[in-house]
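In response to reviewer comment 3 from the previous cycle, which asked for concrete evidence that the modeling workflow produces usable outputs, we include below a single protein chain processed end to end. The sequence was submitted unchanged, and the resulting structure tokens are shown without manual editing.
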Amino acid sequence: MNRSSLLDRMAVNSRERAAAARAREAEGALFARASITDDPPALALDRFDIIAELKLRSPALGDLAAGGFDLETQLAAYAAGGAAAVSVLTEPDEFKGSLRDLERAAALLRPRGIPVMRKDFLTEPYQVLEARAAGAGGVLVIAAMLTDTEMEALIDCASDCGLFVLLEAFDERDLERIAEVATIKPARPNAPLLVGVNSRNLHTLAVEYERFAVLASQLPAGLPAVAESGIDTAEQLREVASLGYAAALVGSALMRAPSPAAQLASFIAAGRGRDDGDRPCS
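The workflow returned the following structure tokens.
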């Protein structure tokens, strides 16, 4: 399996973090803690939706949380703007995230009926349990850095925990593998599977926006598709919606927006083909 050096490095770091966490808390104890955590809100997708991302840093763009940044204010803006879900980076080195960020987001957004998703370089079920214990409603699973067996184990754990899974692809082979795994591990009603196409070139970190169109015809049938990375204009939202994507995951554009709530609402409107998608954000 060809994997980028970035994913290789992230996989190694992820396994080390999981081992360290397991040394602090046995898997049985973590499972017990996850089992008594309040159920997260269910993911509900409309005609076109946005998964808004809480991302403090990007390897491609650097720091995204400017001076005076307040996590709870940003999350409240996402709720006000109409986010279907909120993706929270928990990788600590390249993205400066943490499980504490996920926990805070879940606590704030649960009363508003908005699930949060753990976005990280997950390699084993223990980390899915960590997400559930923190209050997450979903997890990201990156096909390119996992074997089929590893991917299936993460899906099984997420399904048992009632979490949705966003299965991320970078190319045709990833989509083929995701389609095969989804056939073997069909989604449960309370734990849907989504497929994501990431337009980021992991070798150069450049965005290859045309990938959304190139791969659109190869998206697995029956899985809602999510366009990921590099989307920052209303026109791009209209385009990915027209290609059949059910949602887009947007992070950097919202983190840098003067008014994240207004920007998010504008993006949703654009994806749904409404005129207010053209209005400037205040």
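Residues 277-282 have pLDDT under 50 and may be disordered. We consider this sufficient to address the reviewer's concern, and the full set will be provided in the supplementary archive.
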